[in-house]
Amino acid sequence: MSIEATKLNGTLNGHTNGHTNSHKNGSQPFHEIAGGITAPKGFTAAGLYCGIRKVKKDIALIKSDVPANVAAVFTLNKTLAAPVIVDKELLQKGNGTCTAIVVNSGNANACTGEQGMKDAWTMVKETAQALNIPETEVIISSTGVIGQYLPMENVVSGIRQLPSQVSSDGSNDAAQAIMTTDTYSKELAVEFEIGGKPVRIGGIAKGSGMIAPNMATMLAFLTTDATIDRPLLQKTFAKLIDESFNRISVDGDMSTNDMATLQANGLAGAPKIEEGTKEFTVFSQALEYVLVKLAKMIARDGEGATKLVEIVVRGAKTEQEAVQAARSVANSNLVKTAIHGADANWGRILAAVGYSGIDFDPEKVTLFFNELPILEQNYGIVIDEAKAKEVFLKENITITINLNQGSESAKFWTCDLSKEYVHINASYRS
Amino acid sequence: MSIEATKLNGTLNGHTNGHTNSHKNGSQPFHEIAGGITAPKGFTAAGLYCGIRKVKKDIALIKSDVPANVAAVFTLNKTLAAPVIVDKELLQKGNGTCTAIVVNSGNANACTGEQGMKDAWTMVKETAQALNIPETEVIISSTGVIGQYLPMENVVSGIRQLPSQVSSDGSNDAAQAIMTTDTYSKELAVEFEIGGKPVRIGGIAKGSGMIAPNMATMLAFLTTDATIDRPLLQKTFAKLIDESFNRISVDGDMSTNDMATLQANGLAGAPKIEEGTKEFTVFSQALEYVLVKLAKMIARDGEGATKLVEIVVRGAKTEQEAVQAARSVANSNLVKTAIHGADANWGRILAAVGYSGIDFDPEKVTLFFNELPILEQNYGIVIDEAKAKEVFLKENITITINLNQGSESAKFWTCDLSKEYVHINASYRS
């Protein structure tokens, strides 16, 4: 299944504060509902302030009433943060289920050596004790400054307070507690039917905008009350993460802490979802919708960003080449600054495709900004500069590049590069 | 031969306006002299205004009194500008020599299709006629706006005027005529002895700062009066370009027009340079010195740049991995903004090495900013924040990353990322 297949309609409301509207998505077999990660049955959440950051909520708990099958995807960065190392070990030791996830913001617990590992394990043990569950039922996550030790007294105090605060409308509190330089919280939920029963998928996420004080981290935590075996859950989740969170870029910097999880607790009481069935397709489409929409929220909320840019590459020989070309354009500082300045400087896009490493014939390329034709084959320059500028002045821009040499395609999302990005990231760690 | 071998001493005078000082470089077997590309015997040059740009000089000619063996290296971008396509054809047809190079700024003649190819061939024909030489003795080069046709009447008029204006002190005029958003012209020459005779290498270059109106292009033209066969010249030049111009980055965007040439006309009358000899070592070291220094001038003069940053990776398993890690750090917007803001945010450097794709153990890494230790093995954080900030406030910063897992090393040069970069590149094509 590719991104294309879902026919994502409706543009992103870039400034949504995380509250979702209940509406049907055209012909899609699911619709958005309120409630975020606590929309699925049997999930509760909380977010509170424990003193890691200066003011805002900085620690969150996501809890399932019963052990939930869990899928997880982690950063490929070789410089791994302590919580990521610990989580991988827990998942290997456990039986593929997870009951509770604790996340702190304000400190990434990365590049912290032995002390950092000790602190991460303390987070696990304290969570297990506070909830009276095995350690292997816990996942932890951290985001924030790199190279500084966690204030463990505060963290432990937070972990001990969380269990009494979880509730079935705690999603937004949790979404707020995991924010760093995000300007708004990101949450979403959808509902669909499996075997006549309503089933839900919810998610919260935080931004990849690299963070003052320090470190970008892209985190996403999803929940569902669907019944689905762990191997299929992991396979589906990993594939769809690859087509959503792995296709956004704010500045091309990959974090030491990136992670995404999906807990499936089966409490909707619907039939088990099996691969290759109609039900699996519905589940996958709904999951993809949530992941792509959260990913787009992150791209739009990139540090200093004022626009959401969708890069569509069509006519590629392989999907991988389409992704490669799209990523190259999405990461080009020149393209991103031109978009910021509403300068429809199309040559930079062709140059970025040119150095992406894919093999293609530049003379075959056509280019569109939204619906406006810019370049036809054989370098037929048809740009109307005034109209192109109008497109680039919009908040949502789609750049479509047709390589005209195959039938594969891919989408990628990015934002513009502004002086504000430089301002945020040049300023000293608080 | 690696960059290390030359023991480059002396820091770059970042604000040099291209005038060079005659001084001995410690124990090096060469010294800087004035004269740029016209320092070598038998080379003349000119630069004048022909009306491609709004005001400044926009067309240059570099001429050898006799056909010179020529080495050339071109961009790897698949979107090739017309002059690059034409040059490749000329070099294939000819007998490896070049008498005249014509370069215009203000227009890249890229993404211009058939008309662009026609215009490029006209430049070749007009140059050949004006100098009464075969077309295969000509190389052309363009830099500036992409996707616009050259104003050929002005270009032809410029080409016809140039031959009467070349002189043996025309290097700086040529260096100025090839500038785009460069804030100062870049030229350099060195002298050394081969068989008791003085031999010279000179060069001019223009910046890789991506250019308002449009397109970055990194161009370098070098001359020498050494006697050296073309295959050895090409091999040596390509290798040293790889360790100089291919190791700088302003924003990671690769141009459609990048090229570098080295003409060797033999007019010093010195013995022929043969591979594996002491003379070859001297020649290579002198050539590397010129290339690295020009490359550093370009990095320092990146658009909006206020600092020159040298990334040194040591202790790598292979040189290629050292380059890969260094490039990743040099291209990191997060590292570059932190340096701009003098925030010694070392975690971003480890993260950038972490996602570079090389295999390494983060716990073995040590880090230095200039001479100041920042990180010892096993995440021993020894940074003195006040002193580290002092280092980052300097105009020349060296970041040394020791992977401690091998004995290979590499250098890479970059600049900081400022709001001015965004300002320059967000503004409309003039």
Walkthrough of the structure:
The structure is a homodimer of 430-residue chains. Chain A starts with 29 loop residues before the first strand and ends with a helix. The first copy, chain A, has two domains: 3-298, L-amino peptidase D-ALA esterase/amidase; 308-426, ArgJ beta chain, C-terminal domain (Ubiquitin-like (UB roll), Roll), CATH 3.10.20. With 430 residues, the first copy, chain A, is an alpha+beta fold. Chain A is built from eleven helices and 16 strands. Chains A and B meet through helix 2, helix 8, helix 9, strand 14 and helix 11 of A and helix 2, helix 8, helix 9, strand 15 and helix 11 of B.
The pLDDT mean of chain A sits at: 87
In CATH's first tier, which class of the largest domain in chain A applies? Alpha Beta
- The portion of residues assigned to helices of chain A is 25-40%
Low-confidence stretches of chain A: 1-25, 210-216
As for the CATH topology of the largest domain in chain A, it is L-amino peptidase D-ALA esterase/amidase
| Total domain units of chain A | 2
- The radius of gyration over CA of chain A amounts to 21 Å
CATH architecture of the largest domain in chain A: 4-Layer Sandwich
Please give the alpha-carbon distance between the first and last residues of chain A.
44 Å
